[in-house]
Amino acid sequence: MRTTTEQHLAPPRRLTAKGEATRSRIVEAAAGLVLLHGITRTGIEDVQREAGVSASQLYHYFGDKQTLMRAVLARQTAEVLAAQRPELDALDDFDALSRWRDRLVALQRARHCAGGCPIGSIATEVAEDDPDARADVVDSFEQWEAPIRSGLAAMRDTGLLRDDTDTDRLALALLAAVQGGLLLTQTRRTTVPLETALDAVIELIRSYRP
Amino acid sequence: MRTTTEQHLAPPRRLTAKGEATRSRIVEAAAGLVLLHGITRTGIEDVQREAGVSASQLYHYFGDKQTLMRAVLARQTAEVLAAQRPELDALDDFDALSRWRDRLVALQRARHCAGGCPIGSIATEVAEDDPDARADVVDSFEQWEAPIRSGLAAMRDTGLLRDDTDTDRLALALLAAVQGGLLLTQTRRTTVPLETALDAVIELIRSYRP
């Protein structure tokens, strides 16, 4: 297991406030292009144009496309998790679980079901061709799964779920439901698959009440 | 809703046996490259080389890359469904459901968890950039979901599930579990996510026994 993605978020050297802003603008521009077209079809020149920076500026902050794409994944991961807060960090009762579910669905509705999961999309794109990037995506999913695991474990510890509930297993099933639900929601352009997938696993979790 | 993918499988005109074999070899070569590298990174020249055909031969059978990629999706869909048979067509009791689940897991184990779902990967790649291709993927997923729906409905009709069971909803949750499970299995290179996701929804289905 690799260390957390924090290290990729950290700038490669100490930057001035202005340098930090430029670096951030580059990552933001790249992330937007990757969301729309994927990593492969996002050229370094496209990022330069979108961010309004020169080739040498881009090179100064990110030596190559791979380094830039790591930063994009770190940024997307941080954004995906932030969009699920505060619920994601306190999934410790059934109400919180419902609010988190509603938030995920509302996010998709707000973007007309377009885009899918930024992490899942990158996962698909890099999984067979780039083992390092795949390892980064493993980290990203782990950052997502960990708070789900903690929440369900807390529910068990406070007696909301039976003592013998395998909460790690349910947490993984929930993350899979999110991913499968998002992919089908993106493809069919309706939130029904995401809602159905999440509600099914949440219903299973409810069946573990004492 | 569009018509079935059968029409895309049909050759554009009546072909001789030799022509049919050449066409099929081109689609096979293209499908292999798409599995490894995705649609974007699969160039027409790569397909020519891999299939051992000339540019004019390829053009004869597929006027453009989009037409070829439709044929690739149709082929992948047929293969994905065939790999789940005979179970997929008769998911009408709990044993069949278990055997289907085991078959899906065994397939991933056999390929060392690489590759993910050929249909899901294409879905991710085309969803935002190509509405026609996205509509084709909707068809592909529907061809997959329909027999799951039929199987669970049969289980309800024969009394294995309660009369009031919403089997359509459970079928969609199962397909989402397959997709999310496959994506996480591909990323983590272990069948645990696929097994966990499928087992969770199957456990929920079992809870609907009379």
UniProtKB/TrEMBL annotation, chains A, B:
Domain HTH tetR-type residues, every copy: 20-80
Superkingdom of source: Bacteria
Known DNA-binding region: 43-62
Classification via InterPro entries: Homeodomain-like_sf, HTH_TetR, Tet_transcr_reg_TetR-rel_C_sf, YxaF_TetR_C
Keywords: DNA-binding, Transcription, Transcription regulation
Pfam families: TetR_C_13_2 (PF21993), TetR_N (PF00440)
PANTHER family assigned to the protein according to its UniProt record, in alphabetical order: HTH-TYPE TRANSCRIPTIONAL REGULATOR YJDC (PTHR47506:SF1), TRANSCRIPTIONAL REGULATORY PROTEIN (PTHR47506)
Name of protein: TetR/AcrR family transcriptional regulator
Source organism: Amnibacterium endophyticum
